[in-house]
Amino acid sequence: MVLKIKPGLKTVIGRVISNRMQKSVVVEYTWQTRHPLYKRIYKKRTKLYAHDEHNQCTIGDIVKLEPTRPLSKMKRWNVLEIVRKELDIDLSAIDIQANNGGPPTPQRA
């Protein structure tokens, strides 16, 4: 797959925090900036609403976004690619019980 990025458009990389909507995802974009007076570096973050045409994104994925024309009231970004998929771990297959395999709990008389 060859990605054609339009010159002059800023692409951002963020983490998917919600995919409950159809063909839409919410991406958290974080960056660092310096305070103008105190010169301390601190983190800022914002939520971006992006269009996911094929519903491929899951929560925790790292995605690359490009700006686009307004698609709805809040969607202004388009998912270019999924940089890294989040690992899917099925916890229902693992039998987790209290003190399973651990030391026995003392019984009170």
UniProtKB/TrEMBL annotation:
Protein name per UniProt: Small ribosomal subunit protein uS17c
One Gene Ontology biological process: translation
Chain's role: One of the primary rRNA binding proteins, it binds specifically to the 5'-end of 16S ribosomal RNA.
Assigned GO CC terms: ribonucleoprotein complex; ribosome
A molecular function GO annotation: structural constituent of ribosome
InterPro entries: NA-bd_OB-fold, Ribosomal_uS17, Ribosomal_uS17_bact/chlr
Name of one Pfam family that matches: Ribosomal_S17
Keywords: Ribonucleoprotein, Ribosomal protein, RNA-binding, rRNA-binding
Family: Belongs to the universal ribosomal protein uS17 family.
Transmembrane segments: none
